[in-house]
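Input chain follows. Return structure tokens only.
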Amino acid sequence: MEQLDLNLLRVFDVVYRTRNVSRAAELLGMSQPSTSQALTRLRLALGDPLFERIRGGVRPTPRAEDLARSVQSGLAQIEAGLASENAFDPARSSAELRIHLTDIGEARFLPPLMGEMRRLAPGIQLRARAWPQQEIGAALDSGDIHLAIGFLPELTTSAHAKLLTDRYVVLLRADHPVAQQARLTLRKMQSLDWIAVRSHTQTLQMLRAANLDCKVTLTTSTFLALPDIVKNTDLAVLMPQQIAREFMPANRLKLLDFDLPSNDFTVSVHWSRRHAHSPLVRWSREVLLRLFQRD
């Protein structure tokens, strides 16, 4: 163990993140046989297989899961130590900051965030886009994105910090036949026709769990057109309460609570442990926490 080659840990880290030896070899600029040989050396040194072959790639063993956190943290600290801390000055930087945000996340977070960034770091270019849920973790680890903001329970290996809590509500037009009720029961919800939003998987799952997916009469790609649609129809939609309040003129739309589980959720900012010590990641994370974190 005293003679363990640091490069073996770099190979381990990339295989762990990609779950694929061929993809890891490509990212490392190595041949697949050389990557496999490096893994074999590490397996022998640690006395554990580290990865098990599965269809389409590899799966880490429990020992590999434990090792990954230490390796990612250690590599990040080494890279941070080699980089000059004085090289990053927000006021002078022209770096590109890449963030995962859905359309509804952009509406909630970008206005105050851009105001603060224009004040503190006018040269930094922010690129926001929505990544497919299953690709976000790998994109954070590879550096394709620096941060991911949202309700992302599937990101189990990233570091994260809570920004805010919210809850889902039902948005209806103010003169809807059920709008005067204080709360919607499941039976009453089953009498309504619904709008589903493809980009918001949690609301789709909630509709499915309540057997309301058969009542979906409109599916959209984003939330942006929903207020005008709801005002002019009898359709209902599940939305985060804070966004719904910003959308609604009080005399035209109505928000109602409802009887379904899991309507509370936490929005967090996520980052890769691999890049936790990056000055840009650390600074932008601190800005977000200062702007949005609530006790």
